[in-house]
Fold this sequence. Notes:
Blueprint: E1 2-3, H1 10-13, E2 16-17, E3 24-28, E4 31-41, E5 48-53, H2 55-58, H3 75-93, E6 99-103, H4 110-115, E7 128-133, H5 146-150, H6 158-161, H7 169-179, E8 182-185, H8 192-198, E9 205-207, H9 216-226
Amino acid sequence: IMPRFGIINERRHRLHEVVRLSGINVSIDNDDYPLQIKVASLPNARLQVYFLDNEDLFKRKYIFHDEQEKWYDDNGLRTAFFCKGALETVKKFGWPPDIIHCSGWMTGLIPMYLKTYYKKEPVFSHSKVVYSIGSTSFKEKLGADFTKLINVNGAVKEKDLEVFKDANNVALMRGGATYADAITFGADHIDKKLVDEFGKVRGKKVLNFNAESDLTDYLQLYADLAR
């Protein structure tokens, strides 16, 4: 599941709306945002990719910065919409996931939501979450009201939002790592301070980056978590 950013060509990649999943609204800070779900298949692979779309939030020519390299001031809202929308989509599917693998800063809220707001949802009752820390980052802030924005209907406790208070790239990665069941590193040039911090979280399974990996270590990680 990923955002349907405006740079994605729907015709070329043959995206089409999943009608049976239509009608979802994502509630953020007392406002409802309609969620449109589209799907495409990867060529030569038995894999489908679902795209979460909202015309106001994602129909733009650029991803996180405009043509003048100015940071979109609603990127915090877009992040909250995507993370909550992804979990609402899985609920709508009704397919209980064994493993939820989150990659990058924009997914950093998902582990926290799973362990707080969604923890009593039957579809997630046996799910484990893996958070991958990659090299993609940003230098800007997500807004002074970010923790208020991500507090779903006021149902998330302040102590669970504390890790996100700096509203920056590191805060999202730290939050994802804090609430995940396992952490992986997806690049070899991640800030060493972050590797040292996130690689020593007590009680977490950690998989360090290995350029020579044949992916069996990931399969073993999944198997260990699913036990």
